[in-house]
Amino acid sequence: MLDVIAIGEVLIDFTPAGRSTGGNEQFECNPGGAPANVAAALSRLGAKSALISKLGEDQFGSLLHSTLQSSGVDVSEISFTNEASTTLAFVHLDDQGDRSFSFFRKPGADTFLHSKDVPLDRIDSCKVLHFGSLSMTHEPARTATKTAVLKAKEAGVLLSFDPNIRFALWESKEEARQNITWGMNYADILKISEEELSFITGTNDVEKGSLEIQQQFEITLIVVTLAEKGCYYRLAGQDGYVPGFRVKVIDTTGAGDAFLGCLLYKILETGSSLRDLTNLQNILTFANAGGALVTTRKGALGSMPTTDEINHMIETESKKQVNADRFRPGFHFSPPTSWANDPNGLVYYEGSYHLFYQYHPYSNKWGPMHWGHAISDDLIHWEHAPIALFPDEHGAIFSGCCVVDWNNSSGLFEDSDGLVAIFTHADTHPETGQPRQRQSLAYSSDKGQTWQKYNGNPVLAENDLIDFRDPKVFWHAQSKRWIMAIVAGDHVRFYASANLREWSLTGRFGREEGSHDGVWECPDLFQLPVDDTGRSKWVLIISIGDNPNCPEGSRTQYFIGEFDGKTFINDNPAEHILWLDYGRDNYAGVTWSDIPEQDGRRVIIGWMSNWKYANETPTGSWRGAMTLPRTLSLTSKDGSVVLTQMPVREIEQLRKESMVWNGITVTPASPFLQKMNEDLLKIEADIDIRSGEELHIVLKSSGLSELVIGYDPVQQWLFIDRSKSGVTDFHPSFASKHGARLVSNGGKIKLQIWLDRNAVEVYADHGLVTLTDQIFPDAPMDRVEVSTPSGQVVLDSLQIHTLKSIHIPDAVSEQK
After folding, report:
1. Is 692 left (phi over 0), alpha (psi -120 to 50) or beta?
2. For the chain: N or C, fewer Cβ within 10 A?
3. How far apart are CA 389 and CA 424, in angstroms?
């Protein structure tokens, strides 16, 4: 009995083969055709496959017949005709190896397949019938294909369908749509590309589009292929992404067919029904690897991979991932896979903290931005949720915020409150070709599980501004309206609205104030009490982008002052600069909205990276993490009001074991050294620096990596030296020594150090000065040394606490 029968076109692909000495483009002849490729892929893997098709009585027909036969495909149902020649396709490749086609098929022999050529008895007894849309472009092949499909459906045979749209072969797009829709009505398995999904559904959102198709056509398994990015699947109420494999692409012809052949092979291998598949992630990883391997070779049908080749690729990638995952943080938030940057949409609602973030699910480098999503009930343990916002016709989804519209001022909800996201849509202006950034809305009535874009998007545009992004919105009780702080290149603008949909400009701030080393980004504006004085001040946070001439790269400043409901007024001189963090890796930090008044905290989280080298950090399939959530406070210091920050109290639940020492005297000859059995640590040190000697707290690995956290009493300088911290050669700016001024309090300083596998956070004197740095050590840093280069230093107390790791599960999205 056959495992799979494929029905449809078989043809010759002429693929580019360089140029002749005269400069003419040359082509080489490669057997192909989507159904034929699928059959060949299955046979190559060890399945029993057959092809139903028709060939011309010509040299190309003979070549195709013999090639399929030598590939192990049952060719007994392939017939010949003298009514037309074998179909030819000329493949044109761009610089990335992606294809376009020119067909010679008017008509082609494959279109002369008749219903009488279809072996109904063999279809009745096979396990899977695979078909595409190109055998339905013309009669009589259209009727023959439909006859086969109806027979398979009647017999309970699994039906696999690949639209494989080639518009040049159809009379019209509408005819293509009608026949593809017919095929989807019968399919149990649908393999569809992003472009095909967009054509069928009108949306670029693969989650939304695939759900729409599944609900309309009741297709059990839908797989959307995403080229090198991998694939997205939807099966029986669950869905998800499976990352692809990065290879040197030569020719993408046949990659999707190899993917589908591998998918069908592994499904048959399980012996389970589609709905009962429990290892779909592994099956799709196998299929992704098979598709990737084909792209490393020329041609299609003859390039199908073996099981050994696919398994070798998976094992190699797995080893790479194990190596890269040694940098996966233990207690800092990181994305499930791929790229993450700025935190977005921070909001507390009905017992849950929501963390949205800039996310590129298809690469570990910055690309078309989505909003990733995670949920927590304690700010420490997070659960990955499905992607919240996808790029659409208005552009990519840049940074923004979320608020709870408690009184339905937006009118987006039916007699209830709900969540509203205000974000930047980023695209290119169709007339000028310049970047364009406009502000838009999305809303959720189910606690952030699903999001609906507002039909009136965008709601705010300034046509004369190129950099116009990152709205942060809050309800201003005094003026009883919504206030938006948004950056415009070199300054921040303030807008007001009664309904979140219509905005009016009320003020500007910052063109001549603070640091302008880079473009302004990610504003935040909020009010905080000053100590216990009974008075309060407004805090304006502004991140600034990387400037090649500044060694610090991207970083965050803040201003202290007043907000009059229209604009911000700075308390300090224009040239006075206040930095939020003096490390290299804390950027784009914003605060949670709608934390209950009885809690009373203002909590911030930042992206733990730097635009100087963010795309190059050595973390493998994932890249980007967040700082610890921190509670912000205002305090008076030397006659000025300044911001302090400390990790949220909930982090203490991670503490496991503690060791405490008191009255440690350290000299060059007798440093303090403690070997740990853990590499996730919290270190607290009360240090007496009245001797005037420099102190080093050195975190070491079993290899050669070491990170120095030091204090120089003479210079009154707290610093981090990560020049020998492990992998540093991915960017010349990474290995560095940097710090901040810290004046001791009566000859003493207090340090709190949080060590993770990929980062360290240092808080001095209750968060008056903070430093956050990424590190990539050669082995776990599990040794703590306290030393001094001269004289002696006294540690009044030293505490080292080991910490539990957080495991971040993936949420399974349920069908709605």
Report:
1. left
2. N
3. 11
Q: Is 783 exposed, middle or buried (0-12, 13-18, 19+ CB in 10 A)?
A: middle
With CA atoms as reference, report the closest residue to 578 among 532, 624, 634.
Answer: 634
How far is Cα 243 from Cα 621, in angstroms, rounded to an integer? 8
Do the Cβ atoms of 5 and 122 come closer than 8 Å? yes
Residue 683's closest CA among 761, 623, 607?
Answer: 761
Which uninterrupted H or E stretch holds 221? strand 221-225
CA pair distance 291, 224, nearest whole angstrom: 13
Amino acid letter for position 371: W
- Three-class SS of residue 236? coil
- CA dist 246 and 244 (Å) reads 7
What's the whole-number mean pLDDT along residues 588-592?
A: 98
Dihedral of CA 131/136/137/142: which sign? positive
Is residue 738 classed as helix, strand or coil in its secondary structure?
strand
> Tokens 């000299």 appear where?
667
The H or E element containing residue 391 is: none
What is the chain's Cα-based Rg? 31
Catalytic residue among 162, 205, 251, 342: 342
Specify whether the CB–CB gap between 26 and 90 falls below 8 A: no
The residue with tokens 């610089």 is: 95
Q: CA nearest 108: which of 7, 11, 253, 6? A: 11
Question: Residues 269-301: pLDDT tens digits?
Answer: 999 899 889 889 899 999 999 999 999 988 778
* CA-CA-CA-CA torsion sign (614, 615, 619, 624): positive
Q: Are strands 622-623 and 603-607 parallel, antiparallel or unpaired?
A: unpaired
Tokens of 662: 């008191």
Residues 132, 8: contact at Cβ < 8 Å?
Answer: yes
At 464, give phi and psi (nearest 5°): -90, 0
3-state secondary structure of 59: helix
- Mark whether 325 is an active-site residue: no
